[in-house]
Amino acid sequence: AGAIRFENVRFRYEAGREILKGISFEVPPGKSVAIVGPSGAGKSTLSRLLFRFYDLESGRITIDGQDIARVTQSSLRAAIGIVPQDTVLFNDTLEYNIRYGRMEASEAELRQAAERAQIGRFIELLPEGFATRVGERGLKLSGGEKQRVAIARTLLKGPSILVLDEATSALDTHTEQEIQSALDEAARERTTLTIAHRLSTIVAADEILVLKAGEIVERGSHAGLLEAGGL
Ligand code: ADP
Ligand code: ADP
Question: Domain ABC transporter: where (predicted)?
């Protein structure tokens, strides 16, 4: 489940210029598609449209064949989990932050989510002794550590679609590489839309679309695009 389809999507903010100029692509269930492009290309706009923040000028977006214009925003939010660029954590325990919005989650669910998010693996990357500190308040986390919490929090929701919206853009290259395996694991066998401005972060995508000035100007595999020297 979780097939995403954009069909000739056109969009402009208010009466401004056209931001998306007839975008078509699909993410088959369980597959992973990445959208790469320079700042201002329309990537964030595209992800906001998936959450139905705005109405389309023309075209259609469907999830599992259903036009999202006919779906409530709350059910869209239940179906789609997003890992944003800047994760805001509460000044509380790590466990609270992972459970946030899911305080009714049982220990078993939390453990499952941890496995799905490979918390075991990402905790290993944290400072020595961190694994025993999930219940401790006021821990100072680095950017990469925060993103690992964000991944776990999102997966606990059990979404069929995962949106990684510049999830590693705020991190330095080293930290980005550190959490890449957690992201790849999260994306595995889950319909995933990755948004990024660098090709380097999206090796695992089944297909990559290059968005420039509201148009898909290239599509292909990571290796193919590197060869073409696109980005
Ligand atoms: P990207 O995510 O690729 O950097 P965006 O989708 O943020 O691109 O922006 C695409 C274009 O839409 C830019 O020219 C930007 O200035 C414009 N834009 C983004 N958000 C708004 C908004 N709320 N109102 C008007 N124009 C916007
Ligand atoms: P629910 O409580 O319905 O399960 P969430 O509260 O987990 O859903 O919703 C997903 C989270 O992602 C929310 O915090 C929401 O504000 C945030 N979000 C939704 N759409 C976007 C978006 N396009 N960009 C950034 N954050 C978003």
Answer: 4-231
pLDDT at site 57: 93
Tell whether ligand 2 has an atom less than 6 A from the beta carbon of residue 191: no
* pLDDT category of residue 170 using cuts at 50, 70 and 90: confident
Distant-in-sequence, close-in-space partners of 23: CB < 8 Å, separation ≥ 6: 6, 8, 9, 10, 46, 59, 211, 214, 215, 216
Q: Which atom of ligand 2 is nearest to the CA of 84?
A: 25
pLDDT for 229 equals: 64
77 lines ligand 2 (CB under 6 A): yes
> In the prediction, which pLDDT does 119 show?
62
The candidate with the shortest Cα–Cα distance to 209, out of 196, 200, 218, is: 218
Centre of ligand 1 from the C-alpha of residue 144, in Å: 26
Q: How large is the average pLDDT for residues 79-104?
A: 84
Give distance in angstroms: CA of 44 to centre of ligand 2: 14
What is the average pLDDT score of the chain? 85
How is 171-202 classified by DSSP, letter by letter?
A: S-HHHHHHHHHHHHHHHTTSEEEEEES-GGG-
pLDDT for the residue numbered 168: 87
